[in-house]
Every structure is written in structure tokens, then in C-alpha cells.
Amino acid sequence: MKDGNFLKEKNARSLWHPMAHPADSLANPPTIVTDAAGVTITDVDGHTVVDGVGGLWNVNLGFSCQPVKDAISGQLDRLPYYSIFRGTTNDAVIELAEELRDFFAPDGLTRAFYTSGGSDSVETALRLARQYHKIRGEGGRTKYLSLKKGYHGTHFGGASVNGNANFRTAYEPLLPGCFHIPAPYTYRNPFDETDPEKLAQLCLAALEDEIAFQGAGTIAALIMEPVLGAGGVIPPHASFMPGVREICSRHGILLIADEVITAFGRTGSWTGSRHWGVQPDFACTAKAITNGYFPFGAVMIAEHVAETFEKDETGRAAIGHGYTYSGHPVGAAAALACLAETKRLKVNENAAARGRELHDGLLALQGKYEVIGDVRGGHGLMCAMELVSDRNTKAPIDKKAIGAVQEETYRAGAMVRVSGPNIILSPPLVLTSEDVQTILSALDAGFAALA
């Protein structure tokens, strides 16, 4: 590795960072992370902190999961790559498909289509949803519905169903035929409704209204996150996703669960859909499927959808879609090892317990600092604080102020993520109670400095 002075001098000079203005990265160089172990990361200056971000929602098992590392190394020695396009495959992807079939059986999902990551998985599900209707002779079903504040990756399809203008405006016009309904976002919503259950019913009514307006026979699918993640960790009322499922089923609309963040234990349940007792038609996965150690993803497909494709005699079910790295054997080997460790450690149970501790601690901080307008979470290890300059008006906090909280929190011992007015926490699922307290103490220091 180059020495620290070289890295600092060249930082952001020769590369553009995702989700950042190039000039901002030059003026405010990113933190240079050089080492990681357990649930901690260390920067180029030797400063070690608890990673409250979990890489990017994906390092569920922490940075020292040796079985996954060994699986990657072993697979590289044996078969570093081979395509699974028509006519060839590899042993690792077959074994993984069977494991995924068992893992997702309670969700009614029995087939896997491999991808290279979350955005790829969303794009795949959107495409297969349209193709499903064409096979069935309903080619007019081409539109998509999604939630405002939802996030579904960065491909043109995913950006089109995204519900946040930050990921859309610079790239418009996007895919036509994408429409958004209000999210069950209790802190800010167009109905001025603060009761989560009542708000859920209002959003479901808005969904019914949009379907009636568009015409059910024109809609291919609705895509949603079981808990909205990048939009600010917005958990719906328990009645919401089951209500969406019922409405979609009644109108012949496929339900795509974007489980890129929520699958594999993040919510305290093995999947976000299962957390709400819902069986989707597709589930998009990636991130924690390999613990972030290898780019990999899988779209899981419901039995009834799979049968429609497999029993087709018209030729319309031929899949003209895929990626060079779909079913990469190294990724599949990593996923097999990761899935085994995920189940062995029962990380869903730890996520639920530590998530309650973290959420309670954030509520205590809210009672201490007026700048914390809202605290969201309570469903596993995904929490957020929305910062405001005035609690009465809910006016968002100044960008520099929230940046100052983040910087001081980092100095005090924890990496946290800023997204708009939100501080988002998505730490590894192997977090301990002591680690939770480290994050809370660091945040306390961050807010105290701002005050």
C-alpha cells in the first residue's frame, strides 16, 4: 500500500465517487479506510471506529468472516470464472440455488436468477414482470407503481421507479409508465396524518385510486421495500405491506419486494417480506448475500411465476436478459459460505435485540437534543434520526450542521451515514451491546459539539 501522504495527496483527484459532486470530493476529501476487523474500520491515520454503516448495509457478518474469505480463495484456485449463459453452468451456482430455494421457501420463492448486484436485481425483476404478462397474453401490462421516498438502485429502470428526485432529475427523461404513491411516512406526508395505522390506510386508498386511474390492465408490477432504507429508514405500519399484497393480487399486479437491504436478517426477520407476513412474486436480493465481499445478487421468483415461464409453449418465455457475471462461481461460493454463517450465528435474532437497544438509545438522545426531530427504527438494525432546525415547523437542518455532527461522531468513535437531513445507522448484524453503546456515545458527542 502507498504511504498515507501519497494517498491524501491523490485522494479524489483521479476518480469520481458515487453519490457525490466531483468538486465536493476534491474540496472535502473522503475518509480513506485502509483496514477493517470485526465491526470496526481503521483510516489512513490509524483512527479506529465502530462501523455504524455496515459498509453500505451489506457487511452483516462484519469484516472478519473467515469462512467467506476461505470460500472465495478456494473457488479462485479451482474455478475462478465460467459463464452460465445457455449451454454451460457451474457446480457452485447449482448448489447455491438449492440453498436459496430452502431459505426463501417460507416466502413462496423457489427459483433464482443471478445478477451482479442490487441495481441489476431490480432491473431483472422489472423486465421479468413485463415478460410474465406477455407470456400470459396480457402484453398491455407495462406500467410500474412504486412508493415516494423508495430507492431501487441506479439503472434506468430502477431510477424510474425511485421515489426520490435526487436520483432522477439529472437523468430525465426516464422510463415512461412509472407512477408513485405516497409512502407511509408518519413524520411527513401529504395527509398530515400522524397515526401510523390510519396513514397506512390512506396510502392504500391512494394506491387503489392510482390503479383505477391508470387501469389495472395496464400495470405490470408494484415494487416496494418492506422497510424503506435509503429514503430515511421508514418502517410502515404492520397492515401496510399485507394491504399492498391484497390489492395487487386482486388486480393481477405482480408484487416485487426490493429486499436488497432487508433480506438475510437486517429487520430481525430473515426477510423483510416475512417480517410483515407477505409472500411477494419476486424478491430482489444482493448486498448481504456475500457479506459485501464479492459483487453478487439474485432475484428470487415465486412458484406460480416460474411455472408460467417453464410451461410456456409459445416461445415468449425465452429470457433475453443476463449479465456476464450472472452466476459468477466465486460469488456463488461466497454466498454459500455467507448463508451458512448467517444461519449458524442466527444474526436475525441478534439484529432484533441490538436493534431495540439502538432504537431506545436514539430516543434518549432525542429527549436530550432539540435538533433530533424524529427517530425511526425498531425493526432490527436499521435506524435513522431526522434532524431539524425547528421541531415545530420541521424545517430541515442545514447541510453543514449535519455534516459537523457526522464528523464529530466519527472523531468520537463511530462512522455514521448522512442522507439528506437523516443520519442513518445500519451496522453489522454481529454487533454487541458494547458496540451499540459506543455508537450512542459517539453520537452524543457529535450532538453535544453542535449544541
Based on the model shown, name its key terms.
451 residues; alpha/beta; Aspartate Aminotransferase, domain 1; Aspartate Aminotransferase, domain 2; 7-stranded mixed β-sheet; pyridoxal phosphate binding; transaminase activity; PyrdxlP-dep_Trfase
Quick take:
The chain has about 450 residues and is an alpha/beta fold. It has 15 helices and 16 strands. It is globular and about 65 Å long.
Layout of helices and strands, plus pairs?
Blueprint: H1 4-10, H2 22-27, E1 33-37, E2 40-43, E3 48-51, H3 54-57, H4 66-78, H5 91-103, E4 109-115, H6 118-135, E5 143-147, H7 156-161, E6 178-181, H8 196-214, E7 219-224, H9 240-251, E8 254-258, H10 272-275, E9 282-285, E10 297-302, H11 303-310, H12 329-344, H13 347-368, E11 372-376, E12 383-390, E13 395-396, H14 399-411, E14 414-415, E15 417-419, E16 422-425, H15 433-450
Parallel strand pairs: 3-14, 5-6, 5-7, 7-8, 8-9
Antiparallel strand pairs: 1-2, 2-3, 4-10, 9-10, 11-12, 12-13, 12-16, 15-16
Helix pairs in contact: 4-12, 5-12, 8-9, 13-15, 14-15
